[in-house]
Amino acid sequence: MATAxxxxxxxxxxxxxxxxxxxxxxxxxxxxxxxxxxxxxxFSGAETGNQxxxxxxxxxxxxxxxxxxxxxxxxxxxxxxxRAMHVLPHLDTTNAKPLIGFSDTTAFLCALYKAGKPxxxxxxxxxxxxxxxxxxxxxxxxxxxxxxxxxxxxxxxxLHDGSVxxxxxxxxxxxxxxxxxxxxxxxxxxxxxxxxxxxEELSHLDRALWQLDQxxxxxxxxxxxxxxxxxxxxxxxxxxxxxxxxVISTHIKHLSCPVIIGAPIGxxxxxxxxxxxxxxxxxxxxxxxxxx
Length: 292
Known about the structure:
The protein is an alpha/beta fold. It has helices at residues 19-31, 56-68, 106-114, 133-143, 173-178, 202-216, 243-252; strands at residues 7-11, 35-38, 74-77, 99-101, 119-121, 149-152, 157-160, 163-172, 192-198, 223-230, 259-261, 274-275, 279-283, 288-291.
């Protein structure tokens, strides 16, 4: 007997949608049989040309409305962008339902994970249509309740060898770092930390990793997986002769846990959902990160 697909509630936790890309994502979900409840707040700011998708209070109300709807099984972020963190001081997660998103939605994922609520680092509605066929299939599997899958890491570069089994937490680096010193940064001791980002200067990346190490203590992690860092920039004088890898190496040289760079997860075509806190096994020799 086929398992019924979940009903997805949709709202905009961050920036306003780009209508064409949003509609392409909706078509993908409808084509694969999902029922959708699209909150009116989703369309806030879509015609203005700026990034605002309503006030923090309006976004909070939209979330509460979707959480209170008994027909909805999971909430999916419409898109990423900016300003999700402004919602956090207004948010009561008591009645939270599972939420999926990435990039700026990392702020929500951190708050929910710290509160012990289920959440997924994965595609927003707007990113669905541009994903690779493999990532689209895995996304459909996870949304349908099949959380076990694996990430192929054989083409990644191993900076530190080893094997590990631990809970995993995935995040967009710049957003995670912005939560340092706030009540919303979760305790990630003993986790495999997956990081990715887009459009950052190498100097900003260096600064963010230093700050995150001070807050999390990289030595307390079970492993670090660096995903895709898309559109990296070095617009001034060259920051590092070795580029991205040299910057990373500076911050992980004292670690003994497995560290790899180049995992297929990020703002490009590769993004398979990861349930935050899900146990994962990784062995640098096998080249697979198995999400249990």
